[in-house]
């Protein structure tokens, strides 16, 4: 899911920052 990535703290996000930031964040921003 996408919400799980947004819910996790910044520390966890840093791990996915590689792609999560460009995929998840973008998808959520569009919504």
Topology:
Elements: H1 3-7, H2 10-16, H3 20-30
Describe this protein's structure.
This protein is an all-alpha fold and 31 residues long. Helices cover 74% and strands 0% of the residues. The chain has 3 helices and no strands. Belongs to the bacterial ribosomal protein bL33 family. This is Large ribosomal subunit protein bL33. It comes from Candidatus Nealsonbacteria bacterium CG18_big_fil_WC_8_21_14_2_50_37_10. One of its GO terms (molecular function) is structural constituent of ribosome.
Provide a brief overview of the structure:
By secondary structure, the chain is mainly alpha-helical. The protein has three helices and no strands.
Describe the sheet with the most strands. none
- Percent strand: under 5%
Shape label:
flat
Tally of individual helices: 3
Radius of gyration: 8 Å
Low-confidence stretches: none
Structural class: mainly alpha
Number of strands: 0
Distance between the termini: 14 Å
GO molecular function: structural constituent of ribosome
Keywords: Ribonucleoprotein, Ribosomal protein
Organism: Candidatus Nealsonbacteria bacterium CG18_big_fil_WC_8_21_14_2_50_37_10
Protein name: Large ribosomal subunit protein bL33
Characteristic key phrases:
mainly alpha, 31 residues
């Amino acid at each position: 899911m996408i919400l799980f990535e947004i819910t996790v703290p910044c520390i966890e996000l840093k791990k996915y920052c590689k792609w999560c930031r460009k995929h998840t964040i973008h998808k959520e921003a569009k919504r």
